[in-house]
Write the structure tokens for this entry.
Amino acid sequence: MFNFKLNKILFFCLMFLSINLHAENQSQSGAEMSFDFKKQTDAFWKKNLKPEVYGICRMKGTEPSFSGKYDKFYEEGTYYCACCGGDHPLFSSTTKFDSGTGWPSFWAPFDDKSVELHEESFFKRIFGPRIEVVCARCNAHLGHVFDDGPKEHTGKRYCMNSLALSFTPKGEVIPINTIIPSK
Ligand SMILES: [Zn+2]
């Protein structure tokens, strides 16, 4: 009898624990999903980014050609956003090619949720069409896209700044997003 009661109590304790753990996991992923990177202030980015990444991603800078670590870099893997925490895929190594420009170049983004394209009207008027490429999740400036990419693929050249990218080799675990503030 006593054993039966003890078992029952244990059973309910375990049930309660597992429900609580489940709820906690759900609220964590809910917090991540509801965190709006596009609504963060300039102060948030200044606090969370290295100055050189801030200069490219938030101030629309351009790193000098042939200076970036991913220019002559052809390991297999995925390039994530260096600005919004490193778990938002932007490009795959399978679409990377050597454009000879000195900047890492791709003929397509990772998927249709990776990047957004913005027309730069000022440059369009003076130097011809120039399309800015930004991270679709946090609006970080990544680089530009041009129409002189490999014709056997898309014909596009996504000309990126290495400082806006964070590479994870194929088969390795995606880094945990550490930029989202904990409650
Ligand atoms: Zn981003």
